[in-house]
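pinned: reference chain
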Amino acid sequence: MSRLGVGLTIAAVLTVSAAALAQALRYRAYTENWTKPAGSEGENQVDLLTTADFYGLQVITLWDYDHRVCAIQLEQAGFNTKSLSVQERVKLCEPRVAEIWRRADVGSGRFITGVAVCVGGSEGVIRGLEVRGSPLAPNGVPRNSSQTGKFAFEDCAWSELRSCPWPQVATGVRVYLDEVEKGAVGIALRCHRLEPR
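pinned: its structure tokens
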């Protein structure tokens, strides 16, 4: 084989290898799972989901009104890009006084894989949030390293961490409420396994 033939063969192999590594990721159909709720499972629920199959969750923001979590907002990140988009804030109950908000972020290039809530007061309402997340390997499997985003509005007791089944990442949130005006009492994650397109 001539030098030109060997060079073309090597170039073709390198091109195919680079294309295989750069495959776009999306979540696999029919792999949806919901975690058990962190906190409690209320009578009512509100689902917030990513807007496309190539997004996962990176940030959850909670708004506190008069010791009640009355609004939630998600920030979704692309599996294939560093893009971050903010979804509309969803109101869970009517505000009565000034608001305080806190943001739990697992960091750029990481996707949420677990959630815990801090519960307080006699009504067992959410008073804090912890999210855990991991970067993805090129095949879409979460890596072993994890990053935590955590906050608490006040003293409270932390629930058990609820994690996506391995190797899945969060693609949505279910917020549980008992009485609507009481605020959020629990949060669960919608999880999916990823696959190359």
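why pinned: The chain has a mean pLDDT of 87. Residues 119 and 126 are 5 Å apart (CA to CA).
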